[in-house]
Fold this sequence. Notes:
By secondary structure, this protein is an alpha+beta fold.
Amino acid sequence: MNNKKPDKKEIENKLNLVIDKLMNLGRPDNDEELEKGGESIGFFKRDFGIKEWDWPQGVGLYGLLKIMQINGNDEYREFLYKWFKENIAEGLPSKNINTTTPLLTLVELNNYYNDTQFEELCIKWAEWLMNCLPRTKERGFQHVTSANGDRQGVRLNENEMWIDTLFMTVLFLNKMGQKYNRQDWINESIHQVLMHIKYLCDNKTGLFYHGWTFNEMNNFGGIFWCRGNSWFTLGILDYVDMFKGTLNSGVKEIIIDAYKAQTAALKKLQSKSGLWHTVLTDSSSYEEVSGRAAITAGILKGIRMGILDDSYIDVADKAINAILKNIDSDGTVLNVSGGTGMGYDAEHYKNILIAPMAYGQSLTILALVEALQNDKKSLRVGISSQEGIITPAYVCVECNNKQISPKYLFTLLHYYDSITKVMYKMGDGLRQTLSYRELKDLVIYIPSIDEQHYITDVFEEIDTYITIGNKMLASLKKIKEASLQSMFPHEGETVPKVRFNGFEGEWEQVRLKDISTKVVEKNKSNSISVTLTNSAEYGIIDQRDFFDHDVSNIDNISGYFVVQPRDFVYNPRISALAPVGPINMNKLGYSGVMSPLYYVFRVFGINKDFLDVFFRTNMWHKYMKDNGNTGARFDRLSISDELFREMPIYCPKDINEQKKIASYFRSIDRQIDLQTQRLKKLKQIKAACLDKMFV
């Protein structure tokens, strides 16, 4: 379960796809089907696409603005300008918390245009927030929202505060206060932040509840909703940043302490997949991407600002890798939940639909942008091996003293960047701009020239081994993938292209029902306390290892199925790694229990290791796609037990050939595991040497 470093090139490529998709995002193909589910599954017609003026689009615009500010892309700026002009011309919806969201982008965009229409609109809306927006007890912003199906109507949500408000409204009000030097607007934004922390932050866990009602004086269902929490994680550092060091130190300390408590809790709740569950403390709820992306962006910014320590780097890396896996080839961010009203129980959040949403695209943009500019494990220092030219955005230095080796200076700066993080305390701005004026004052320690050469030789040797190791690992993975393609028959064929010597004849087709029985034994006596889960990436694994905490207890697993060693489990959860859900064999060597959401089956009359390899191929995917459906839940494949058991299985008639194939792939997997561990050890050695060999 090695935590792979996110690939920078992949991040850049998928970021471009996500941006393009956002700018062209339309309605889902099955919106008529979704509409039947109504609000109970989170269907709000206005939420879809990029054209409407409401919070989903507003968050989408904010992501586009941030990437525009970094890249200076005129196309993005023109898109935003045209979007606002067209929406204003068509007529705006009612003023409320959610429809304020696009203005956060507009107030910054107008720095480029100085458009009086834009300025007047922003000022008018800010005054409305101050003087007209309904208030709760203690003058909190009442979470007034748009009426479903009526652009000019509102839902008052009387005496209710929702965590969403901080991002949707308070950021804009503070931005306006900072821009126009309106202390009353700034003070009101501070009041709202502290009010929401007071009533929504759980002192025990550090997490945020979705809402608070003064009518009943409670937090509704007391649910820790992931995307709700993400609005705070993402938005609060942007809020603090707006003050440019002028925020009252006591107030700032309260805010940052709340942020640190929340991120510490989120760190513990992150699953092995890298994501978080839509109900953070309920592992049976689905993993959703938009809230996870916002959390990741907020954590990365906390690292960049020096608020969070390096232990959060692995958290961010895992999350980014998981997000990348949930970006489709056309740039659509997958597994994004729809608009979510206030819920009184966990089931409300679990039943929310999954569909492409503007905020899913945008929050993913923010996460990927932060990953690119805040990659604390990457080497931002390079050494030139040849003469050439480079962009003026980079700082170039040369060694003009024979007493310092260029390779040593390169290695030293690498140490300052990757181990001590000295450079992350220098520079400023969204892109952490670092000038030569700042860099030249960096204190460095120089040993004798002979010792410099010795140090660089050591690290060059380690880097050579790491490079070779990476190539070997990549080669092994390619061999495995090619073998899966060649050693199993293709669709419409009965023999594979490659076979071991001594085996011939056609493969046979059997049905899963012919070689298996469904496990129906339940843990009624609670004799088994180990709860397992089935992960597309890691296979069958103890939930305590997967989620880093206990997600079940002796009181709630009596209805779970017993999974013995070498039993198989089907998980209907769809992901990029498992487009129809994974089927894995229990290789742990001990029994456990599994949620009834999974299909557990016991195999006979076929080599189990061969069958495990078969399920690594895509030979069974077409059958599942043809016979299953997703409906409103895009993250799960629904297929009846009867149809599942009719699945065709293709295998050699000779059991010895099955064993031979299984043994071959076991050997490859062992080599991949060994090589992965070797690489991990080499990188640990390098980090340790860097830490020990420099002052």
